[in-house]
Structure formats: C-alpha cells, structure tokens
Amino acid sequence: MNFFVKNGEIYKLDGATGKPKIIYLFGVNWFGFETRDYVVHGLWARNWVDMLQQIKSLGFNAIRLPFCTYSVQEGTMPNSNAINYNINPDLQGLTSIEIMEKIVAKANELGIYILLDYHRLGCDQIEPLWYSDQVSEQQFIDTWVSVAKRFAKYPNVIGADIRNEPWGATWGTDDPATDWRLAVEKVAPKILEVAPHWLIFVEGTYKTRPDIDERSWYPYYSYYVFWGENLRAVRYYPVRLPYEKIVYSPHTYGPDVFRQPYFDDPIFPENMRSIWMERFGYVKTELGYALVVGEFGGRYGHGGDPRDIIWQIKFVDWLIENRICNFFYWSWNANSGDTGGILKDDWTNIWEDKYQNLKRLMDYCSSIN
Asked: Structural domain of residue 15, as residue ranges?
C-alpha cells in the first residue's frame, strides 16, 4: 500500500486494486513511549486492546505514536509500574518496541493508521534541535532507519513525523547546525530508502528567519507562536523533497497551554482566523501542500482557562471553512497536564463535549469524501 499527496490531499494506493483513494486522518495522540515509562500510558488502568477498540468506536482512524530514542532500542524494557499485567497479561516480558509493534499490528487489524513521531531524543524533555549532547545527528538518522526497517511492513503505518517541535531550529538560513529544512532534506531520504511508501511529516519551528517572521501581519505577535506552529518560511523555502511525499504538520494551541497576547485582543476569537492562516493555513490553501494538524487541544473548560472552549470551537470552525480535514488531537491520554485528554481521569469515560466538537469536523469531512 502506498501513500502519496495529490492536490493537497493524502491518497492511499491500494496494492490489490491499484486504485487511489483520498483518506482523511481523524487522529489522536497516545503518548508514553517518549517518556521514561517507555510505553503508552494508561495501561495501568486499561487493557491495551480495549483502548484501541474504543478509539476506533469513536470514529478516530489514526494514532500519532510519540517515541524517544531509547524506547525503540532493542532490549529496552518498559517501566513495570506503567503496566498492570493482570489486565495486560500478553505484554508480560515484552520489550518496549515489541509492545509498540503489537499496538501497530492490532491497529492494522482495526483499520487504524499509525504516524510514528520522534518526539524526544532523550526521554525527559523536548530538546531544541534534532540532535543533542546525548544523541548525535547520525544516531538520530540511524534510529529512524532502524524504526523504518521494523515498521515498513505494516500497511497502516502512514509515515514519519521527523522531529517533534524543533523549537531551537531556524528555517531557510542555510546554517547546517540549525536549519530545519536542511535537516529534513538530509534525514527523510534515508527513511524513504527503507520505506518509500511512507509520507514525511514536517513540523513548523518557533522562529524561522527575522526577515520572514518580522513581516508578519501582526508584527507585535511575530514571535508569539507555539512550538511547531511556524510554517511561514515554507512560502520562500519549501522542503526540497518530492511534492507527493511531503506533509506539513503544525502544532497550535489555545489559552490553556500558554496565554498569548492575542487571546486578550478585544476581537478574540475572530482574530484567530488570520493568525492561523498566516502561520500555516496558507500552506494548503495557497501553496497546495498537504496539511495535517499534528497537535491541538486543551481542557475545554474542565479546569484551565474558560476561553479554551471558545478557541477550540473556533479552530474547528476554521478547519471546516478551509476544508482542512486531517488532525491528531492532543491527547487521548487523561494525564496530559495542560490539556487533559479525550479520556477522563478514570481512563475509561470520555469528555463528551470535547469529542462532539471534533465530531463536527469528522462528520463534515466524511460527507465530502
């Protein structure tokens, strides 16, 4: 099965029939492999298959699976306290990557796409670049090649999210130490050699170049962006990979995550449309690239800033207005500190209001495909 981009949409080429079909990714982020637990969270409370079946039953058809370097190394064992083996007996004795492979294989049976996300280098924080004192650039590349070799055989693995939120990177500066575009162009071909049917997901940065960021429509807000959100430089410095393989994947959040000054604008939330479009929306609507929102979310009034509900509703409205149908909501997990999850704290029941807002988008997009 092959995945490719055409006219700004993601297509799946069925190997059996040879016919292409547009697919929309209605996804959630299920995190944990990127932490020192080395395994998705919630397995202390739930059976892993039950969790996947619930995701499917709600209409989600994709999972972004964050990992760190050590969780995908051979021999790494998950934190035993992170798994209740009484309700997950088939995970007993398995390494972290063996558990990840079971999740991917079961997701394939259920018709759930998987996006693999190199979220952290070490497993403690989001480092600024794609290399660090702990993990060299070559180790980063080697890790991706190893992961691609292992998971390329699963037809539901749609691609590689090269690096989560490279907030210390630049874009278009031609500095090999910081230019995120150059890094993607160096790493992605190595992945595509092993998994040529995959897509390459490219997140935004925090800053790009001063001459680009400072010509923002909102000069005062030029640098008030979220990590992974800034795709302004794509207009001038697109990633030089085959068009059909590139997916741009911004992250954006509301006031629950950080109180940006534009949330205090008297016309909020009407000001958000222009901000989203200027930072990343134009990549699809003007340039015709595929766009998948890799992260957005918040507590939706369940604690936190009450304006988060307004922000999330307006964001879904904007996605519908612009026929941007692909997303991965942050998060499935109940234990995301600043956003909460689709799941409530019992790890079983869902926040129905959060879900219904997302369902508006899923229902709309399903109706047009």
From this structure: 2-252+259-296+317-338
Q: Does residue 114 contact residue 107 with C-beta atoms inside 8 Å?
A: yes
Total domains in the fold of the chain? 1
pTM score over 0.85: yes
Residue 106 lies in a domain: yes
307 domain-assigned: no
Is 80 within the bounds of a domain?
yes
137 catalytic per annotation:
no
DSSP label of 220: G
Percent of residues, the chain, with pLDDT higher than 90: 93
- What separation in angstroms does the CA of 90 have from each of 31, 75, 85, 343? 20, 17, 8, 24
The answer, yes or no, to whether the previous bond of 210 is cis (omega within 30 of 0) is no
Catalytic (active site) residue 165: yes
| Torsional class of 231: left (φ above 0), alpha (ψ -120 to 50), beta (otherwise) | alpha
Q: Strand, helix or coil at 43? A: coil
DSSP 8-state assignment for residue 206: S
Q: Indicate the SS3 state at residue 201.
A: strand
Residue 187 lies in a domain: yes
Q: Residue 176's domain is classified under what CATH number?
A: 3.20.20.80
User: 154: which DSSP letter?
Assistant: -
For 303-347, the pLDDT digits (tens) are: 989 999 999 999 999 999 999 999 999 999 999 999 999 999 999
Q: What's the token pair of residue 144?
A: 């991706």
Tokens standing for residue 243: 């068009």
Distance between CA atoms of residues 31 and 333, nearest Å: 7
Count of beta carbons in the 10 Å neighbourhood of residue 290:
25
Query: pLDDT tens digits for 105-154?
Result: 999 999 999 999 999 999 999 999 999 999 999 999 999 999 999 999 99
Helix, strand, or coil (residue 326):
coil
Catalytic residue among 34, 127, 165, 229: 165
